[in-house]
Amino acid sequence: MATGVSQAAAAAEGATAAENTPPGSEPRNLVFGTAPTQSSTYQDDVTNHAADGNTNGNWAAGSVSHTNLESQPYWQTDLGASKKVDKVVVWNRTDCCTTRLSNFWVLASNSPIKARSLTDARNQAGVTAIKVGTLSGPSAEVKIARSARYLRIQLEGTDYLALAEVQAFGDEVVSPSADAQRWVKDSPFGMFLHFNMSTYQNKQWADPNGNPADFNPTALDPKQWAQSMKDTGMKFGVLTAKHHGGFSLWNTAQSDYDIAKSPYKGGKGDKGDIVREYVNAMHAKGLKVGIYFSIWDRHNGDSTDLVKKQLRELLTHYGKIDYLWFDGWGWQVPYTKIPYQPVRDMIRQVSPHTVVANNDHFGTLQTSDVIVYEVPVQGMPPTDNARPLDASDTLDTNRTWFHTTSTGAPRPASDIVDNLHKANAGNGLFLLNVGPDRTGRLPQTYVDRLKEIGSTS
């Protein structure tokens, strides 16, 4: 989980969508995922940080596109085709130097803006140019109301140009998929199972260079997990097949840092495969299968190729995976490094009806089928929402995800039932975390509390 990480609010908040669109639709950010250029780059900066969906504006977090100190620096992008643009939203850096983004111009055109000087760019035929003096907050909204393919942000004087994000909205919208809407309706309650190397290192984020021999459950019992879900009235589970430390609970062909290198051998005396044991136990109880997968891999590195190959293993070796829950993407591994759309397209090709929940805290359907609310960080989602939501919470009073010595007593059943009803009222499912202990079983106090929840929900 992205514990303690605060992300920007929904990128398209307040934007005006086209009329007569399906319920739950949101305006599409036309800039997201484009390939910008700029007049120069500061310290080998990446120009597409301002097109990665992340508006938090922190340089150290890799969320700012930044030029050198120069006269009239600019940033620009190609939307790929002429599109209706109602407005452009320009987001400022937030960690320092906020006054630098002042006296700048937003330029829009259907032809490439090639001029280097601001005056020549503004005077180019077909260019609309609008000046912004100073920002009164973290962003400035500029009404354009024209068709455009090319957008440029350019300073008037001499300074650095630092942009957290540039967004453009018009008449294009993103609508919830039928699969996602059906999933949250038919799967209102599920169990999150944080169980991985962290359990054995007694920390929430495991050392990515740990010893596979540390992972050694002595009484692993996915059947107990599944039975407890049934007793609680749950419809599905989500198991942490790979967390941020990169240790895989299946025998992946892409890495030696996996269950096959651990002492655990499974019930058949061969190389263990906890994902398979989990899937089999779920199917035996008529439960739907969810898998947690961290895009951020601190052991093997961040690679689109690795992500695609490991996801292909998970999506083709175990039958249908109903729910794929991503973490670390957008806030640790930016979409500039591992783009969202190629990975999502691959999932659709391999497993067309798998629903994706992506814990990037961006609050947009452009990077997730289901909008995730990490409840200990963000609170419960609104109850007047038409988009499909996932409210992920912990049963632990101390809000731990993996079972460690810091894990406390289970929360009162009334608290959990109340949050379940709130999530379901807001077109959302409720995903309740219960971490198996070092034996591989759910602690009995938690099993008892889950039964109580099931009898009162």
TrEMBL record:
Sequence ranges of Low complexity compositional bias: 8-19
The entry's keywords: Calcium, Disulfide bond, Glycosidase, Hydrolase, Metal-binding, Signal
Keyword Calcium: yes
The keyword Disulfide bond belongs to this UniProt entry's keyword annotation: yes
Region (Disordered): 1-36
Domain F5/8 type C per the UniProt entry, residue ranges: 11-171
InterPro entries registered for this protein in UniProt: FA58C, FTP1, FUC_metazoa-typ, Galactose-bd-like_sf, GH, Glyco_hydro_29, Glyco_hydro_29_N
Enzyme Commission code: 3.2.1.51
Role played: Alpha-L-fucosidase is responsible for hydrolyzing the alpha-1,6-linked fucose joined to the reducing-end N-acetylglucosamine of the carbohydrate moieties of glycoproteins.
Similarity-based family: Belongs to the glycosyl hydrolase 29 family.
Name of the protein described by the UniProt record: alpha-L-fucosidase
